[in-house]
Amino acid sequence: MKITISLAQMDIHFGQQAANFARIESFVAQAANEQADIVVFPEMWNTGYDLTRFDDIADADGAETKKLCQSLAKKYHIMIHAGSVATKRHQQFFNTTYVFDENGQLLTTYDKVHLFGLMHEDDFLAAGNQKNRFEVKGTPATSVICYDIRFPEWLRTLSLSDSRIIFVPAEWPTSRIPQWKRLLAARAIENQCFVVAVNRVGADPDNDFGGNSVVIDPLGNELLTLGSEETLKTVTIDISETDEARGFMPVFADRRPDLYE
Ligand SMILES: NC(=O)CCC(=O)C(=O)O
């Protein structure tokens, strides 16, 4: 099975949801024009980390995000991994991923599990506590968000449902891009799967963000690496490479979960 994936490495207007909503159609249209099966956006692309204003600007129950992405998915007949967006539910705020199929149907919802204290998420957001699993052209996949990649036990837990692709939307600062690359490669190698990671570019009042969105194969090779400019790039992956990696070295079968508690 081959899957064509577009990485929408966008800049984000700080706290301006309407402006960010207005920008995504051009990325979706370009991805569809490049025959992509799925287009992937970065973390919290609706507002950025304008945390103190979330009461005014976070998307209530993700309703606006869902309406927009469902209509774009249907219009361009393409799956949309909507990165993540700031959402509001029951008087709490979340950093939430939505994934839509090419008919606009919502396939999964995931709230970021590990909140990132260095960017004050834990002061403003509630943490998620649920796994997620969905399919891209019949291939099992899962999603985490940014800081989650520093928790290999969480990605392993998600991978045990036979995920062959791990998606990672991010707002990862420029100063730690070398760690971003190494962590993502390690997660791909140890889980013997593809990693599709989309970082934002540009800056907010506290950080510069370094792009370097990347698609990594199950052996840790970078198949596509973006620079630090706003852009969309497309690559095709071959899922049979995950079977080859797992057949050659049966890491999942060799696990000793009885010793891991
Ligand atoms: N938005 C984030 O979760 C950033 C995580 C990060 O920068 C890290 O170093 O981890």
TrEMBL record:
Highest taxon of the lineage: Bacteria
Family: Belongs to the carbon-nitrogen hydrolase superfamily. NIT1/NIT2 family.
Domain CN hydrolase: 1-239
Keywords, sorted A to Z: Hydrolase
Residue ranges that the Swiss-Prot or TrEMBL entry lists as coiled coil: none
Pfam families on file: CN_hydrolase
One GO MF term: hydrolase activity
Protein name per the record: Hydrolase
